[in-house]
Amino acid sequence: MPEYNEEIKKMNERVAKLDAQQKQLKAKKRALKNRISQRNRKARTKRLIEKGAILEKFQGEGADKVSADDSFAALVQLQNDFDSLKAFTSNVKYRKNNPDEPTRTVYDNWKEQQNQN
User: How many CA atoms lie within 13 A of 16 on its CB side?
Assistant: First the structure.
């Protein structure tokens, strides 16, 4: 009977030791996840600062007076203008010099030039 009690005591000690190890591993896991989140936040912040600096550079000297909403509206307008120009140039075709030549649009030609650069 005393052997039986000793065996149970050792098993309980082992369970307690495993519980302590589990707590340590959970704490390490939580710390690693926090470190990953922090690095991701820092990387995002850096990207936002860099992109903001580029936008401010294009806005010129009065950039500090331009609101975020106005900057957004200007970018949306630029995108809309580009989409309109793309749609228009996609319909404008070059005149064929040779009937065997494929028909090309102004936009196709521009895209091809962009890909070459």
Answer: 6
Per-residue pLDDT tens for 92-104? 888 777 777 778 8
Return d(Cα 91, Cα 35) in angstroms, integer: 53
Paired tokens of 68: 């975020």
Q: Which amino acid is at 4?
A: Y
C-beta atoms surrounding 66 within 10 Å: 15
With beta carbons less than 8 A apart as the criterion, state whether 106 and 92 touch. Answer: yes
Give tens-digit pLDDT for 49-83: 999 999 999 999 999 999 999 999 999 999 999 99
Which of 6-15, 79-88, 93-102 shows the lowest per-residue confidence on average (mean pLDDT)? 93-102
- CA distances (Å), 100 to each of 1, 48, 106, in order? 102, 51, 18
